[in-house]
Amino acid sequence: MAEAVELLKILGDGTRLRLLRLLQQEPLSVVELQEVMDMGQSRISSHLGLLKQAGLVLDRREGKRSFYSAQPPEKPPARDIFSAVLHSVAAESIYREDRRNLDRILSRRRAESEAYFNMVAERLGKNYCPGRSWEAIGHFLLYLTPAIDIVDLGAGEGVLSQLLARQARSVTCIDNAPAMVRVGSELAREHGFDNLFYKLGDIEQVPLPDASQDLALLSQALHHANNPQAALAEACRVLRAGGRLMILDLKKHQFEKARELYADRWLGFSPNDLYNWLRSFGLEAVRVDSVAREKQAPHFETLLATGLKPEN
């Protein structure tokens, strides 16, 4: 009873009721509330303080501004009293006027946002945008990985595979370096992945059965192969019907020191070669696109090649 009486006292003020009605509809700053209600800042802040003290309003700090929103009581009878009181005054003219003013404020917000994006539309993707990076986008997209079986050919320690394993049914990493297999297996155990497996093997003789995988990956591995076409043939062999092959590798370049610095056997591949190889193995919907180019010399360019194994 004491709680209900205190609540009725708080709700027994017209200004506080107007504030609650507005803040139920949209989080607003004090400046916006001033404009909607045509009221001074000190008066609004005083009433907001009382509502916050009573637990009926929450505030959220964004930079130099605070945004307030209504927080109705969760339990009866306070919840029922709150709803009944605010509902009973909804039809009064002052609340209809507040709603019209609020709509004007929200329309202005949308217009300001639209004006900004109209201004930068032709520059989007070229200028800095806080929080937008390829790393962040990559993590976002990895959560869309379906529950499929994936093989990562020439995986190294399997950085990509560890990300894919969060969603995939299984991920098998193939690498011919025992140290890579050991390090990758330790990382899988450390991160608690029971669907991530490491196998010692050659990407030109993959130690997996025919038609056992839904997705085969070759990420910066093909240019290390003795025979790239043999590696592609193996990738296609382990794919199920309808499975996809994806290749990330360097576009053909002339940086000879890559052989010494990175143990590269091939100085990248031409888009035409990748396209024709994938088509020669019967893959469908083949695409080869340039997806990145490094700013620093020797300006390595990365190709993404993909194709589907036919259903029949």
TL;DR of this structure?
Helix content is 44%, strand content 21%. The chain has 12 helices and 9 strands.
Molecular structure report:
The structure is a single chain. This protein has 312 residues and is α/β, with parallel strands linked by helices. The chain folds into 2 domains: 121 residues, Winged helix-like DNA-binding domain superfamily/Winged helix DNA-binding domain (Arc Repressor Mutant, subunit A, Orthogonal Bundle), CATH 1.10.10.10; 175 residues, 3-Layer(aba) Sandwich (Rossmann fold), CATH 3.40.50. 44% of the residues lie in helices and 21% in strands. It is elongated. The relative contact order is 0.07.
Entry keywords:
seven-stranded mixed beta sheet, Rossmann fold, Arc Repressor Mutant, subunit A, alpha/beta, 312 residues, two-stranded antiparallel ribbon
SSE diagram, text form:
Layout: H1 2-11, H2 14-25, H3 30-37, H4 41-53, E1 57-62, E2 65-70, H5 78-88, H6 93-120, H7 134-142, E3 149-153, H8 159-164, E4 170-175, H9 178-190, E5 196-200, E6 213-219, H10 228-238, E7 239-250, H11 258-262, H12 271-280, E8 284-293, E9 301-308
Parallel strand pairs: 3-4, 3-6, 4-5, 6-7
Antiparallel strand pairs: 1-2, 7-9, 8-9
Helix pairs in contact: 1-5, 3-6
* Proportion of residues in β-strands: 15-25%
Number of strands: 9
Please state the average pLDDT score.
88
Q: For the record, what CATH class of the largest domain applies?
A: Alpha Beta
Strand order, largest beta sheet = 5-4-3-6-7-9-8
Q: What is the global morphology?
A: elongated
> How many independent structural domains?
2
Number of contiguous helices = 12
Through-space gap between termini: 74 Å
Determine Rg (CA atoms, Å). Answer: 31 Å
State the CATH topology of the largest domain.
Rossmann fold
Summarize the helix and strand pattern as letters: HHHHEEHHHEHEHEEHEHHEE
Structural class determined from secondary elements: alpha/beta
